[in-house]
């Protein structure tokens, strides 16, 4: 059953979450109104997809970049 919304501290999370109908433009339910339908339970599914790329430990190493620069300079001489 819905609880009287004035029984909560004004502006508290409990008051905001007790009846979320005003978020979609509907009026608050009266205290004592039936809440939910026990014969028709809600369900939800949560799926996660994770993609990982592993790079070599020396991928951003400055020594590796410097060695490539030196070999390029040496070829032109």
What is the distance, rounded to the nearest whole angstrom, between the alpha carbons of the first and last residues?
86 Å
Share of helical residues:
25-40%
Mean pLDDT level: 81
Order of helices and strands: HH
What share of the residues does DSSP label as strand, in percent? Answer: under 5%
* Number of DSSP E strands: 0
Structure classification: mainly alpha
What does the overall shape look like? elongated
Query: Poorly predicted ranges (pLDDT <50, ≥5 residues)?
Result: none
Helix run count: 2
Radius of gyration: 31 Å
Largest beta-sheet details: none
What does this structure look like?
The longest helix has 14 residues. By secondary structure, this protein is mainly α. The mean pLDDT is 81. The protein contains two helices and no strands.
Element layout with pairings:
Layout: H1 13-18, H2 62-75
Notable characteristics:
77 residues, mainly alpha
Briefly say what this structure is.
The protein is mostly helical. The protein has helices at residues 13-18, 62-75.
């Amino acid at each position: 059953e819905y609880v009287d919304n004035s029984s909560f501290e004004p502006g508290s999370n409990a008051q905001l979450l007790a009846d979320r109908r005003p978020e979609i433009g509907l009026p608050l339910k009266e205290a004592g109104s039936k809440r939910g339908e026990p014969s028709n339970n809600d369900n939800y599914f949560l799926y996660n997809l994770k993609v990982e790329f592993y790079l070599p430990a020396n991928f951003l190493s400055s020594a590796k970049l410097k060695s490539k620069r030196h070999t390029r300079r040496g070829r032109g001489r």
